[in-house]
Design brief:
The protein has one domain. It has 1 helix and 8 strands. By secondary structure, the protein is mainly β.
C-alpha cells in the first residue's frame, strides 16, 4: 500500500473519529418575543442530544446586556458553546475561523441596518441566518421587526425571534461553515462585512 494512500486513510479515520465524538442532537424549535433594551439575556436555549442531555447552549443578548461569558456588541447577538463551555480557539462555535480575535466575529451578531428591508432578504447576512456545524443545522430568524432611533442611529424596538435546530450529517466542521453568497448581493448598499467577510 502506498504511503500517500496510507496518509489519506489516516486522515479520513481522524475525521471520522472527530465526527463520531460529536453528540447526536434532536430537532427543536424555540420562539421568543424580544423587547429592547435587553437588560437580561432573553434567550438561553439548551440543545440536547438523543438521550436528553444538554450538550450545547445558545445564548443571546445585546449592547445593553451585562457582560458575562460573552461580550455582546450587536443590536442583537447570539453565541453558541458546548456544555460545559470550551473557549479554546473561539468564544462562539458560530465563528468561521479559528482562532478568532474578538467575540463579535460571527454572523450571530445582528445590527438593525442589516435586517431593515431590503437588506433583510440577503441569505445568511439578513434576518435569517443558518449555521452548519457538528452534525447540525441551526437557523436564527428575526421577524415582525419594529425599528427605533437610539442615540441618533437605527436600533431595534421589538421583534420575534426563532431558533431552529435540526440534525445534518453533512455538516462536518467543528465551527460554522462559511456560507457562499450569490454575487448578485455584491454592491447592494447593504453592509455585509460588519462581523465576518462574505464569500462570493
Amino acid at each position: 500500500m502506498s504511503r500517500a494512500l496510507l496518509l489519506c486513510l489516516a486522515s479520513l479515520a481522524a475525521q471520522f473519529s472527530a465526527h463520531a465524538e460529536w453528540p447526536r442532537i434532536v430537532s427543536q424549535t424555540d420562539r421568543f418575543h424580544i423587547v429592547s433594551p435587553i437588560r437580561k439575556s432573553p434567550v438561553d436555549v439548551p440543545i440536547r442530544d438523543i438521550d436528553g442531555k444538554a450538550v450545547y447552549r445558545l445564548v443571546c443578548g445585546s449592547f445593553d446586556t451585562p457582560i458575562g461569558d460573552f461580550a455582546y456588541s450587536g443590536d442583537f447577538e447570539c453565541f453558541l458553546q458546548t456544555v460545559p463551555p470550551n473557549y479554546h480557539g473561539v468564544s462562539s462555535l458560530f465563528a468561521e475561523a479559528m482562532p478568532e480575535t474578538a467575540d463579535w466575529q460571527t454572523r450571530g451578531r445582528f445590527f438593525a441596518r442589516e435586517i431593515k428591508p431590503p437588506c433583510d432578504e440577503i441569505p445568511d447576512f439578513g434576518a435569517d441566518r443558518t449555521f452548519r456545524l457538528r452534525g447540525m443545522k441551526i437557523t436564527l430568524s428575526l421577524s415582525n421587526i419594529e425599528f427605533d432611533i437610539v442615540d441618533g442611529r437605527l436600533g431595534l424596538k421589538t421583534f420575534d425571534f426563532s431558533v431552529s435546530v435540526i440534525p445534518d450529517r453533512s455538516a462536518t466542521s467543528a465551527i460554522a461553515e462559511p456560507p457562499t453568497l450569490d454575487p448578485k448581493w455584491r454592491g447592494t448598499g447593504c453592509a455585509l462585512d460588519n462581523s465576518v467577510t462574505p464569500h462570493f
